[in-house]
Amino acid sequence: MISGVPEQAVLPDAPFTSNLTPHSDPGSFVWNGDHSSLIALLTAYPEARVQDSASAQPMRLADSLRPKLILDACAGRGTKTRQLAALHPTAEIVATDVDGARLRALALAFVDHPQVKVTTPEGLRRIVGQVDLLVLDVPCSNTGVLSRRPEAKYRFNRARLDSITAVQRDIVEEHRPFLTPNGSVLYSTCSLEPPENLAQAQWAAGRIGRRVARTEVREPRGMPGEPDSAYADGGFGALISPA
Hints:
The protein has 243 residues and is of the alpha/beta class. The chain is 27% helix and 23% strand.
């Protein structure tokens, strides 16, 4: 699935229009072309990205905010980072990841980007207390994306859930000092489990002296035989803001 496709890319005479089928979620498209054509699309339109609509939706919970500094603390390879740059074009974005391979890919993806600066987790010290929007797309059980991560169902159990929720809380604790007094947190998972989602967001809100202002819950959609445009992953997002 492709998100962030600009309007000019789907005009009748645009070179990639025939390969883009509108998804049931507005703003997303199913890609019908080959890999080389996809690379050409992403090169021609850097704001476009391979991203499921359920993954894109949580970032929009903060679309009314005007942050000066955003910290994407679990940035992975930068898909949501790129979306944040499009949603907040005047913000400076600092992105990092604890995994070395992902961090190297992230740095390569944003070389000379005008908004995004990639740093190591240790390099974040310079922005303690300065972040207006803290984005935590935390590790999770993956129960919202089992169609793409079928191995996740074999490792899911109560002990695993307890372990991953503890990791999520550690991430909140580690990063809350970066917030300004009026800063907000955008918390997201690709899980369907309440302990990882609303319960965790409510815990985080209490821990940092905020409230859960907005939430988005997405159930997986699409059955065998249905068109690709009906398919979507599941997930959760919460905007945690000052009262």
